[in-house]
Structure formats: C-alpha cells, structure tokens
C-alpha cells in the first residue's frame, strides 16, 4: 500500500513529529505508515486524513493485488 | 496520567526484580555455573524492559503517547509468541533433559524454564516487531 502522507505533510509544512502530535500517535507509527510497513486502523486513517485535510481514498493508494 | 502510571509501575517492577536478584546473588555464596545462565537471561529481560520504559519516557516528554495502536498490536503479537514459547518449553524442557542428560527435571526448574523462555520470546519478538514496524 502506498500513501501520499509525505507529499501532503510537505504541502502543509508538517514534520512527522508534528503530525504525530496532532493525531496522538508515536512518530515511528507515522514513519512506518509512510513506508507502507504498517496498515493503520480505519480510525487512525480517518484521523490522518482529517489532519491533512483530505479523504482516506485520496491518502492511501491500493495496488490491485493487495485487495 | 495513565502513561505515567504505566511507566512508574514498569520502573517499580524492574527495580524490584534487580533488588531481588542482587539479594539472591549476595546471599547465595558461591554461584554455580548452571545458575549464571538464568541470571544472565533475567538481566537481559530487565535491561530490555528498562529500554522499553526509557523509550516511553522519551515519547511522553515530547508530548507524544507512550503507547499507540501499533505498539498495542505489537504487544499482543509478542504476548502470543511468549505464550507459545512457554507452552513449548514446558513440554520440551523435561523431554530434552531426559533425552540428552538422562536426568528428570524437577518441577521448580521446569517453572523457571517456562518463565524465562516465555519472557525471552516476548521481549525478543516485541523489540523485533517494534523495530520492523509490523
């Protein structure tokens, strides 16, 4: 699963730590989600999307074979 | 507040384990070679626990949570691996002792092996999963 978190963070000039603070998770969690190593829960995905003023389907890009 | 309570509890338990171990070592007199191995495992477990506590303190100081959904999931996974290791060591330790050394392992030794193997499996899988991010 690919994400656009890094791109949107850069748009809003947010560091991983600032985004983590906004949504109440550890910085490493943001790092692992960005790298595609951790699949967040629906609630966390929603919180990240809300913090980055976008929608979940705009934030996460699923490959066909991952579905 | 919940995070701080958890950190203090973890630190208290680690201190109590170190105090108990020190008390045992100081009063045991001559320590046999076979006793060094479990003492080493206990020290590894305490050192790893202190590392986890330090990591949580670092996050709380920065205003981040000590534990989030990823670490809770990591904790559950590591607990299940620790549980499986405990079960298998309870079965395997007396069996291996009987086959290799022709010696029937006493009950308290089996209990010690179960606790140490479970703890070791938990801490290794926790640190590995937390580092790998899954």
Task: Supply database-style keywords.
heterodimer, A: mainly alpha, 434 Repressor (Amino-terminal Domain), two-stranded antiparallel ribbon, 57% helix, 6% strand, globular, B: 134 residues, mainly alpha
Textual characterization of the structure:
The complex is a heterodimer of chains A (67) and B (134). In chain A, helix 2 crosses helix 3 (27-35). Chain A has 67 residues and is mostly helical. Chain A has helices at 5-11, 16-23, 27-35, 42-51, 56-59, and strands at 2-3, 60-61. Chain A starts with a strand and ends in a 6-residue tail after the last strand. Chain A has a single domain, classed as 434 Repressor (Amino-terminal Domain). In chain A, strands 1-2 form a two-stranded antiparallel sheet. The longest helix of chain A has 10 residues, at 42-51. With 134 residues, chain B is mainly α. Chain B has one domain (2-132). Chain B is built from four helices and no strands. In chain B, helix 1 (2-27) packs antiparallel against helix 2 (33-61). Chain B is flat and about 55 Å long. The two termini of chain B are 27 Å apart. The model of chain B has no long low-confidence stretch (mean pLDDT 89). At the A-B interface, helix 2 and helix 3 of A face helix 3 of B.
């Amino acid at each position: 699963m690919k994400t656009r978190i890094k791109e949107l963070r850069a748009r809003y000039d947010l560091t991983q730590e600032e985004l983590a603070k906004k949504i109440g998770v550890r910085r490493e969690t943001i790092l692992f989600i960005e790298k595609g190593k951790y699949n967040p829960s629906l609630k966390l995905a929603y919180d990240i999307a809300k913090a980055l003023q976008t929608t979940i389907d705009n934030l996460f890009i699923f490959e066909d074979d991952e579905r | 507040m919940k995070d701080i309570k958890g950190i203090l509890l973890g630190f208290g338990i680690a201190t109590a384990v170190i105090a108990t171990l020190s008390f045992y070592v100081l009063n045991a007199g001559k320590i046999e070679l076979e006793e060094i191995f479990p003492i080493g495992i206990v020290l590894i477990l305490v050192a790893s626990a202190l590392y986890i506590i330090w990591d949580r303190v670092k996050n709380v100081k920065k205003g981040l949570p000590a534990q989030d959904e990823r670490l809770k999931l990591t904790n559950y996974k590591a607990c299940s691996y620790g549980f499986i290791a405990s079960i298998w060591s309870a079965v395997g330790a007396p069996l291996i002792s009987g086959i290799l050394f022709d010696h029937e392992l006493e009950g308290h030794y089996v209990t010690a092996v179960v606790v140490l193997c479970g703890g070791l499996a938990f801490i290794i899988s926790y640190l590995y999963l937390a580092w790998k991010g899954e």
